[in-house]
Design goal:
Tyrosyl-Transfer RNA Synthetase; about 5% strand; two-stranded parallel sheet; three-stranded parallel beta sheet; Rossmann fold; mainly alpha; 13 helices
């Protein structure tokens, strides 16, 4: 008998094209996506449907969606190994989201902490999309029968809701959806702000010195790291109360592969100034090939279009089969 290898587990993840992707996005999620495509049947999406829960200029959204797609291609997502697509190009997402709305309870939605947080931030625009977007997120995942979903701590609640909806639907209509599990990366999962290391590095931070953008110029990366908040010890070691240095060590470790112990040995007797420059130089070299590939892609619109159209076709092929099954089960005439 021939040896038959087990099918790869399927993994799905998406990122909104709002703001510029940061070093935190890169280390915490995107770099990991590149590794995941080697091991899993991988689908990755630019979540532009999710982006319009807040008011955004249409031209800006189009530009940022293209930029986001180019960056994800530039970091190493390979169309031969994974499917990378723009969410709105696969209409099955919106269609399944409406069906799942009807299997999501109002009380469940009101308990979503992100809705409360975002409502507070956008008090002048508390729209229905902002309230219901967890069911769109559930549709994103369940449409592809994903086994695994890379998530941060702030998305655990949404994944639990997705599982609840899937379980409810499966219970009513027999097994339809795969029950997804959370996948939390072990290394580099949380990169903090360079100006307030108690907060996560975010692309919406009002202080541009708080975050490194993937597309930042080398001189800007160096300047921002030199201004990074540290402490008065002036000794490079990982410890309690040293959040600024701990964060810089996490960044350095993530891009060089060195352990904290090795970093401490390498910088024994050296000050924070030397360490900040070393971190900056390591990050600059890590991001250099990404910036170079991005520049090539963003200036070749025809090639970029061929990539995202091919990605949408592949995603649609999978999504259509799931949606057809769901529509039949709820009673729609095919």
């Amino acid at each position: 008998m021939e040896n038959q290898t087990a099918p790869k587990k399927r993994i799905f993840s998406a990122i909104k094209p709002t703001g510029s992707f940061t070093l935190g996005n890169y280390i915490g999620a995107l770099k990991n996506w590149v590794n995941l495509q080697e091991e899993y049947d991988s689908l990755f999406a630019i979540a532009d449907l999710h982006a319009i829960t807040i008011r955004i200029d249409p031209a800006k959204l189009r530009a940022q969606t293209l930029q986001s797609y180019a960056i994800l291609s530039a970091i190493g997502l390979d169309p031969e190994k994974s499917i990378l697509f723009i969410q709105s190009h696969v209409h099955e997402h919106a269609e399944l989201a409406w069906i799942l709305n009807c299997y999501s309870q109002f009380g469940e939605m009101t308990r979503m902490t992100q809705f409360k947080d975002k409502s507070a931030k956008h008090a002048d625009n508390i729209n229905l999309g902002l309230f219901a977007y967890p069911s769109l997120m559930a549709a994103d995942i369940l449409l592809y029968n994903a086994d695994l979903v890379p998530i941060g701590a702030d998305q655990k609640q949404h994944l639990e809701l997705t599982r609840t909806i899937a379980q409810r639907f499966n219970g009513l209509y027999s097994e339809t959806f795969t029950m997804p599990e959370g996948f939390i990366p072990k290394v580099g999962a949380r990169i903090m702000s360079l100006q307030n290391p108690l907060e996560k590095m975010g692309k919406s931070d009002s202080n541009e010195n708080a975050y490194i953008k993937i597309l930042d110029k080398p001189e800007d990366i160096l300047r921002k790291f030199k201004r990074a908040v540290t402490d008065s010890d002036a000794k490079v070691f990982y410890g309690e109360g040293k959040e600024g240095i701990n964060n810089l060590m996490s960044i350095y470790s993530s891009v060089t592969g060195l352990s904290f112990e090795q970093i401490e040995r390498d910088f024994d007797g050296k000050g924070y100034g030397d360490f900040k420059v070393a971190v900056a130089e390591a990050v600059i070299e890590e991001l250099r090939p990404v910036r170079e590939k991005y520049d090539m892609l963003i200036n070749d619109k025809a090639y970029l279009e061929s990539l995202y159209k091919a990605g949408a076709e592949k995603a649609t092929y999978i999504a259509r089969k799931t949606l057809s099954k769901v529509k039949r089960k709820v009673g729609f005439i095919s």
